[in-house]
């Protein structure tokens, strides 16, 4: 499965949802886990809804740099409201999202190569670029959560 390692790492953070370390992040493990799962779910759903015949590649310097180094700099991004939970996050919500993300990650390989999403920072991403973004983004939040719980 695509992102299997990252998915398994995300699952492990269910045990630490109450942890917060403001020296690392203003948000706790619960928020980073919720955010990571929401991003996976929403982006794969956008891929599924896209029309591959409408795909038009574009060039984006920022995307090229982030994809090349494989890291998102800490504290530089702002999450859109759709993936920025403001209230209390429950374990049951996270468990539901984990199941949905797992199902969608299994489906992503079957999608057409030219399905796409329009990312607000990185521009138009085809399926393989989207997978790369999801890997980088998920690892970014896994690293933050690991730092929070240490």
Query: SSE string, helix = H, strand = E?
Result: HHHHEEH
Tell me the number of structural domains.
1
Total of DSSP H or I helical runs spanning 4+ residues: 5
| C-alpha-based Rg, rounded | 15 Å
Gross morphology is globular
Largest sheet: 2 strands, antiparallel
Q: State the low-pLDDT regions, or none.
A: none
Biggest sheet strand line-up: 1-2
Instruction: Calculate the terminal CA-CA distance, rounded to whole Å.
Output: 29 Å
**Oligomeric assembly:** single chain
Which structural class matches the secondary elements?
mainly alpha
Helix content: 40-55%
Query: Which whole number gives the mean pLDDT?
Result: 96
- The total of beta strands comes to 2
Strand content bin = 5-15%
């Amino acid at each position: 499965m695509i992102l299997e390692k990252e998915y398994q790492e995300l699952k492990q953070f269910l045990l630490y949802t109450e942890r917060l370390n403001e020296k690392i992040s203003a948000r706790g493990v619960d928020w980073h886990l919720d955010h990571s799962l929401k991003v996976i779910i929403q982006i794969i759903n956008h891929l599924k809804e896209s029309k591959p015949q409408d795909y038009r590649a574009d060039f984006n310097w920022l995307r090229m740099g982030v994809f090349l180094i494989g890291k998102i700099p800490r504290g530089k991004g702002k999450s859109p409201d759709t993936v920025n939970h403001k209230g209390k996050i429950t374990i049951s919500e996270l468990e539901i999202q984990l199941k949905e993300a797992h199902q969608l990650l299994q489906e992503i390989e079957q999608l057409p190569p030219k399905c796409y999403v329009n990312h607000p920072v990185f521009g138009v991403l085809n399926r393989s670029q989207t997978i790369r973004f999801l890997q980088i983004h998920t690892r970014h939040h896994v690293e933050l959560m690991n730092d929070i719980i240490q």
